[in-house]
């Protein structure tokens, strides 16, 4: 009997020590992931290629993706809706440079974009217009952001480069980036007089039903003054999110932008709207008033399963029932996203025009 008691005590002690060792190793491993994912370890240009060579086996891949997804929520409750027109200055100094930036693979613009580019041109005739091709964008990144260039070059899809470039071109020149399939409805001048950095926002139904988040910032429209610290933050964090280059939204796009916006706001909650470092998150109705038709079926299917839906999802489904799927821009909408989906079948890539035939004063 004593022998049996001793053996049980010994086993219990052994189990306790093994548990402590396991917990210690877990803490050490997680600490290592956090440090391996930090941007400080790759900001030195000499370490960039070495860092990229480690990417395929990177242990921070999934944890970084989870961290991004968990940090997307912009609201803790039902999102607000626009109920009144914001008061915007009709005159005064501009706080953001009057420069339009648009990008495409080459100078020849597909027919799907013509009317959108024409609308941007017509509402901003006294503005500078800069058009960037893949080659000219690559040249700017190599010259001005050399420590980012190895990552930029090694993204496995062009979409990553396009999205990352938006942050760099706004940091370098300031101004407004607008997707090629966004139609201008109002001059942007009043907004640029009031704010120093503006982010568009996806429709709330997109955020809730697709990403289970009450709000997601959109990279289809961005406006920021030259050298703004938020653009610098987005650029400097690109290397640490490089392992996510299989998920472009998390590595460079909307989820990436939302994640860093939320962190920025948390760190700068004391800023007043008049401060140069403050960021204005515009309501969806300003720049993306309509829903993406490609998502209609997914949303209908999801809303048909009402028993499994959260409170936010029920709100989104009720909003779809109340406001419909196809929505017109409001009187306060500055742009409308036409949702061209260039990678989908049916997108016309053969009927094209040179950008200079649409915007003769464009800088190339």
Automatic annotation (TrEMBL):
GO cellular component: membrane
Biological process, per Gene Ontology: mannosyl-inositol phosphorylceramide biosynthetic process
Gene3D superfamilies hit by this protein: 3.90.550.20
InterPro entries in alphabetical order: Glycosyltransferase_domain, GlycoTrfase_DXD_sugar-bd_CS, Nucleotide-diphossugar_trans
Keywords: Membrane, Transferase, Transmembrane, Transmembrane helix
Any one Pfam family match given in the protein's UniProt record, by short name: Gly_transf_sug
Chain ranges passing through the membrane: 7-31
GO molecular function ontology, one term from the record: mannosyltransferase activity
Protein name: Glycosyltransferase
Organism in which the protein naturally occurs: Potamilus streckersoni
Source species taxonomy: Eukaryota, Metazoa, Spiralia, Lophotrochozoa, Mollusca
